[in-house]
Specification:
Chain A: It is a multi-pass membrane protein. Chain A: It comes from Glycomyces algeriensis. Chain A: It is found in: Cell membrane; Membrane. Chain A: Belongs to the binding-protein-dependent transport system permease family. The complex is a heterodimer of chains A (329) and B (555). With 329 residues, chain A is mainly α. Chain A is 75% helix and 0% strand. Chain A is globular, with a radius of gyration of 24 Å. Chain B has 16 helices and 21 strands. Chain B has 555 residues and is an alpha+beta fold. Chain B has two domains: 174 residues, D-Maltodextrin-Binding Protein, domain 2 (3-Layer(aba) Sandwich); 241 residues, Roll (Dipeptide-binding Protein, domain 3), CATH 3.10.105. In chain B, a hairpin with a 2-residue loop joins strand 6 and strand 7. Chain B starts with a helix and ends with a strand. The radius of gyration of chain B is 24 Å and the shape is globular. Classes of the chains: A mainly alpha (329), B alpha+beta (555). The interface between A and B is large, with 68 and 78 residues.
Amino acid sequence: MSYFLRKIGFYAIALWAALTLNFAIPRMLPGNPVDILLAKLQQRGGAVSPETRKAYALLLGGDDSRPLWTQYWDYLGNMFRGDLGVSVSYYPAPVSEVISQSIPWTVVLVGLSTIIAAVLGVALGAFVGWKPGTWLDSLIPATTLLAAVPYFWLALLLTYLLARVLGWFPMQGGYDVVLTPGWNWEFIASAIQYGFLPALTIVLASIGGWLLGMRNMMVSTLSEDYILTAEAKGLTPRKILRSYASRNAVLPSVAGFALSLGFVVTGSVITEQVFSYPGIGNRLLGAVQNNDYALMQGVFLFITLAVLGANLVVDLLYGVIDPRTRARN
Amino acid sequence: MSLQLRRRSAAALLAGAAALGMLATGCSSGGSGGSGDPSTLIAYTGQAGDYQINFNPFSPTRIGALGTIYESLFFYNKAEVTEPVPLLGTEQAWNEDGTELSVTLREGVEWSDGEAFTADDVAFTFGMIKANPAINNGGFDGEVVAVDDTHVTFTFAAPAFVKGPDFMSTPIVPEHLWKDVNPAEDVNEEPVGTGAYLLDDFKPQAFTYKANPDYWGGEPAVKQIRFLALSGNQAGADAIAAGTIDWQTGPIPDVQNTNENFPNYNAYTQWQNQMVLSTCSSAEQGCEGPQTDPAVRRALYYAMDRTQLNSLAFMDTASEMSPTFALTPSQDEYVGASVTEPKVPMEPNLTEAASILEGAGWAKGDDGIYAKDGERLSLTVEVVTGWTDYITAVDTIASQAKEAGIEVKAAQSSWNEWTEKKGSGTFQLAIDSLWQGPAPDPYYVYNYFFTTGVPVGETAGNNYSRYANPVVDDAIAQLALLSPDDPARQAQFDAIHTEIVRDMPFIPILTGGTTSVWNTAKFTGWPSDDDLYAFPAVWSAWDAAEIFKHLEPAS
């Protein structure tokens, strides 16, 4: 039991440290939101006079003269109450509303693609590792090549081929904007059609890592004594592959999978840029460009929670998944 | 303006995206103009990322409604020096000393919920703005009285001729719906206006307007307008290539040949943002560096080869500029005969640059760079990372300036950091562009950028060059007291021109082009050289609203 308490204590401290950094880092950014907002207005052809500047500084409360310490305490308090503040770049919308509008898109698209890539990669890796030295090994350089190509370049190439030349998929967006988002088949079908290409690029770009990791673990597992024992007992190769080799080889991939789920939120920035996909990555980029502290903090908080949460779950579940850890405890 | 929107777009993707854009351009053929329904116009304003609903016309984060839903009293066409176009107002007249403005309102106008529009709505709107400093972005400080249903009178304590255009282009809102809301924080999800369009539906990826059948000017021919959210201007260019949008403002690859590459589209460029090397100019205000010497600024002005700059950095979309900062050619009438060089020289003049520098006591060192009192003539230009045309421009200027014995270095930083440096005065030169005021009158540029600035260390507003010249201040103050038609204004403009052409706190480069790409196969009536009824930029809300009303489906 003390094992779990220790773990949870450790994560509480990690959370506090992350929250504090989260508070400090945006405030070290140069510039202030009012200047950025005015610069944006001016670029859109607005006449920015001295009076405009005064009005928007008043509106957005440009100068927060409270001491940093007080701001910090208020910030921590608000975080625990779940109050993320008001976004400056989408004023007066609250941060939680901005985030909740975007996060489902990211979670579904990047989450699903991550799961697909991991499952496919691990399955293929187990198979390739099972028969090292055959032609199947050529899958490794092929997929790692895809992983090594800069992601945005791969995405642009696929967009060009599949969307522009062949016209199979739409190039941009999350759904046909004529439809109304909701739980109806027409909309979901459109969302799937629009999401397929971004998902495909994510899967292609990340499958190599899973495949390589699993294959190498398979090769080393196959030389273990218990595999030899299993063979000596006369078990079928299929049984050995599934219950003996794969089950042991997959453990590091499970840990890696939980971690990569934690990074779903961050991993989406480039995908969403290339495909104009609605999601949290676009919002984060916009928040940074606009010095929108509250929105940045909100998005970072989600990322922190996702990563810490995924780690905690892995830590706690590892004992359950891996009998050897259990035995040692 | 547009340039900067474009520049910012997905900087990280630029290299790859540009190449892909070329491929896309190369292979397009006379395919589909197929953005759906023939009377639906699909526009992309450069919005990066999803929309958050906000149709409050006074909010800086609004996504629409200006011009299309909420109308102002008059429309000012900044593309040409013309009379304001009557919208909700039909006539305006100042009294002699500029303290009282009488406006006659249009009769028979209704809000889209059926209530009648009256003078009380106008008086209410301005009263509300005055009572809420956070939305008073035109600095309204007068009184508005509804004389009868169709006449209002604005009174001011001091002459307010030059503020008129700001107030006349203020969106008017209905009193019966706005009297109970907080105008600074309401997002106005169901806008009710007098304009030619009504809000049809809103989604984070797009919102749609539909034609107002009861519009006072007659139902517009374009029945629906849809605004898309894409990730940036590169995505916009891709959408043009795919034929999924009808209008975007921002360049596409090979823009000169738009019509050959995409037969349904045409590109049209107008020039408004005057590109400059801003300098931290005033040593008295605390600026440091060689650029505080006007001779250095003038020498740099003559060292530039603007023809080369235009082709290398701006795809030949920029146009000439006047060192007086009156837009050329549309505001040429403001430039008096006293200005000996009304346009910037397009070719470098190294002899002139050398004689200016030597006249100010600079001497050429062994390394070919001028120096004075042991200080080398070396300048750093701040430029924003990812604004590729400005980065190319600075690199080009650097090699041109070297010929003239001036060392120019580029320093790239993020937009936020760049803005911060300009605001606090910790820069030598920064490449940037100056924007225009609410009406086609160079007064606004002078007022925004050339009135005495704050010292280094304090946050500057518009005049971040910190230029301080009492003669200019005085002339600007005089202009504010004169009616826009008063011939006495010219003497004040002449005084300003003499000073700023000599001092050059902002070193003129060229006037940057704003390029719109629009679907001419689907709609007719776009602005042209013959009929430039609005500034052609989809992100410029008032202008875009005028354009929407002028368009007609081609089929």
